[in-house]
Amino acid sequence: MRSMLFVPGDRPERFTKAVASGTDAVILDLEDAVVPERRPFARGEIARWLVSAERTVPVWVRINPVETADALPDLAAVIEGRPDGIVLPKARDGADVRHVDHWLEALEARCGYAQGSIGLLPLITESAGALLRAGSFTGLPARVTGLTWGAEDLAADIGALANKDVEGEYELTYAMARSFCLLAAAAAGVPAYDTVDVEIRDVAAVERRARASRRQGFVGKLAIHPAQVAPIHAAFGPTAEEIAWAERVLAAFEAAPGVGALAFEGSMLDKPHLRQAQRILANRQRD
Q: Per the domain annotation, does 287 fall within a domain?
């Protein structure tokens, strides 16, 4: 998934529009986008829509943090609609992820679903404690399909006035959180998804940051507005130059079977470069 678009769970008139926006996945939100007194209403609207709507892209639900009184009611309310996955916010450590995995196992059994059929995407750096325990997110249940992170809640937890500098780039603490998400995902063998941008009109800034995300190793990015989807997709698609380079690299290795390293256009390439070329070609057509 290149993009996952958040939609407030108490705005059912937006659900179908979000699915039709061109995003690769939709996240119906029961957490920060919904005030506590409207969560029962939002649960009911999400549950009804999941059962009745035609889904052309995967639809996920973000529940509330595992330690809150809302988390299990969130899951119990939406499980009958069989969401494609659950987004777990503010995971404090790997134990929180396993806790939700156990809940999902029980709910899947109750509904007659295959075990592990509902995915799980934890946000792993939304507090100082979670950031310091990033290594605990490497031994994960099989249903975890990726990791992502959050900068806004981390800033609030720390007490920072902002998480970006005057040029709009993340300060060191948040750049470190982003890197820890990448490293934890790589160690766990799952994709990493970059966090949201708050800009909804400066699409050039969204695309610029998304291109930087792709260079660093993220496979996609969270979005909070449909206008962000197109620039995210543009950023996460390989360029014509990258495709041409990858095709030449693949041809060079195919012409030298059994060779682990070879000279190529003035440089030395080995297996990591071959894997990079293969990933580029695998992702060249996803629309």
A: no
For 112-132, how does the pLDDT look when each residue is reduced to its tens digit (9 = 90+)? Answer: 999 999 999 999 999 999 999
Does any domain span residue 159? yes
The number of helix segments (H) and strand segments (E) in the chain equals 11, 10
Question: In Å, how far are 127, 183, 194 from 101, measured between CA atoms?
Answer: 21, 22, 23
pLDDT of 287 > 60? The answer is no
Give the pLDDT mean for 218-239. 93
Sign of CA dihedral 205, 211, 217, 221: positive
Contact 219, 192 (CB under 8 A): yes
Using DSSP, state whether 157 is helix, strand or coil: helix
CATH code of the domain containing 155: 3.20.20.60
Q: How many whole angstroms separate alpha carbon 231 and alpha carbon 57?
A: 18
- Helix, strand, coil tally for the chain in percent (to 5): 50, 15, 35
Asked whether residue 269 falls in the same domain as residue 255, the answer is yes
Global pTM value: 0.88
My answer on whether 123 and 255 are in the same domain is no
Distances (CA, A) of 133 to 69, 93, 136, 249: 23, 6, 6, 39
Domain that holds residue 273: 240-282
